[in-house]
Amino acid sequence: MTTHAIPHSVPRTNRQTLLVCFLAALAGLLFGLDMGVIAGALPFLAQEFGLSSHQQEMVVSVMMVGAALGALCSGPMCTRIGRKKTLLIGAALFVAGSVGCAFAPDLQTLIVSRFLLGAAVGVASFVAPLYLSEIAPEHIRGSMISMYQLMITIGILVAFLSDTAFSQSGNWRWMLGIITFPALVLFAGVLTLPESPRWLMMKNKHALAQKVLLLLRSSEREAHTELDAIRESVKVSQRGWQLFRASSHFRRSTCLGVLLQFMQQFTGMTVIMYYAPKIFAIAGFASTQQQMWGTVIAGLTNVLATFIAIGLVDRWGRKPILKLGFSVMAICMALLGYMFFIGITSPVQQYTAVILLLIFITGFAMSAGPLIWVLCSEIQPLAGRDFGVTCSTMANWIANTIIGATFLTLIDSVGSAGTFWLYAALNVLCIILTLLFVPETKNISLENIEKNLMAGLPLRSIGSSLY
Ligand code: BGC
């Protein structure tokens, strides 16, 4: 038998990069697991603790409150103690929150544990992409963002599968507790990571930064060139708040980031992820098994359709895909609303509703899911990037909290049809906002986007090469 030794020519960068990808993916996976798991656990939890609609919303949405706070604290924490330690704190919070949920004796403990998990998700959603962008070589930096979203969707799917596996027994404690294991793997993995060279430079630890880069890059020259570039960017990168106060152009790009994240959440996708079994129940699928399998199919569609975005984003561009995605989502929400309005009685109607839901999910996963994260990282000028991305990441969680906390109340007050029509209208609004404000950033360097922004071009034109 011949053995194939790994050739020595595999550059160290590749191995290190693989490790970095894996760890970032793991943080995304945990993000997705924690978002997805509650959909399946909620009905059993509600039964065991006798929860009202409002209390159920609290269990769902307290996580997002934690995430908003986690994202807010991550910026200063990252600056003070570094990326690696912040990510470690995130991983520890994932462990603590999962264990707390699994053993929660009452609603209060459950709410506190979900808050801790939220803080972990908030920290992970800020630090992991930031760490990646600072440590990954330039040629793979762009694809990381869509891959990160892909891992979120895989996390959601795995959570749905685990929910389904445990739904026979109704064991919600295992559904929530099982996440402890990947969280422990994340914690152990982060321990092995090097600190970000950019942060080391910010702290004047030049020798250490150099050591990390020499380890991560394939040649000494490459490491030194990057070190010089970091030195330059570090000079300007700490001016976020001052820049926000001084420059109306930076205020515009910060507002655009916040708006984009609100648009992503107001599509209604997140409520489908949180309340999928409930939506299948409204569509007439009475048994828990049917609802759980429907939820798994929804999660799988989400994963698969994300590949469409990965394949198209650099060919079609961001704006056409977003317009298409929002249109598909608006139409599906409007039709679903209509079906709920006339009443879903026959199996044909039930399956039509499921197909509409799956097309809606495809519309999101191929557009707003990954592209909003991509755009948010592209539109900020270097000097205010950390600040701008903190604001948009927080906005994601604030919007997420609002929709998570209002969905069941909306259904109770305006009915299923009214709720879905409202989301249809919000998607139409997203099309209009895309036309008015969203730039096309395909094939243009970040430096040119920054120049256009700071020269005062309208937001929708900052991606043009006119300047
Ligand atoms: C969003 C989440 C959403 C998920 C679905 C993420 O990009 O931020 O709110 O539930 O995608 O895949």
Kindly describe this structure:
- The protein is built from 19 helices and no strands.
- It is mainly α and 467 residues long.
- Helix 9 crosses helix 10 and helix 12 (248-266) packs antiparallel against helix 17.
- It starts with 11 loop residues before the first helix and ends in a 13-residue tail after the last helix.
- The relative contact order is 0.13.
- The model is unreliable at 1-13 (pLDDT under 50).
- It binds beta-D-glucopyranose.
How do the strands and helices of this protein lay out in sequence?
Blueprint: H1 12-49, H2 53-81, H3 83-103, H4 107-135, H5 138-167, H6 172-177, H7 180-191, H8 197-202, H9 206-216, H10 220-236, H11 240-246, H12 248-266, H13 269-282, H14 288-316, H15 318-342, H16 347-365, H17 368-378, H18 385-437, H19 446-454
The site of beta-D-glucopyranose (BGC) has 13 residues, from α5, α13 and α18.
> How much strand?
under 5%
Overall pLDDT: 86
Distance between the termini: 62 Å
Describe the largest sheet. none
Number of strands: 0
Gross morphology: globular
N to C succession of SSEs: HHHHHHHHHHHHHHHHHHH
Q: Uncertain regions: pLDDT < 50 for 5+ in a row?
A: 1-13
The helix/strand class is: mainly alpha
Share in helix: over 70%
Radius of gyration: 22 Å
Question: Which hetero compounds are present in the coordinates?
Answer: beta-D-glucopyranose
DSSP helical segment count: 19
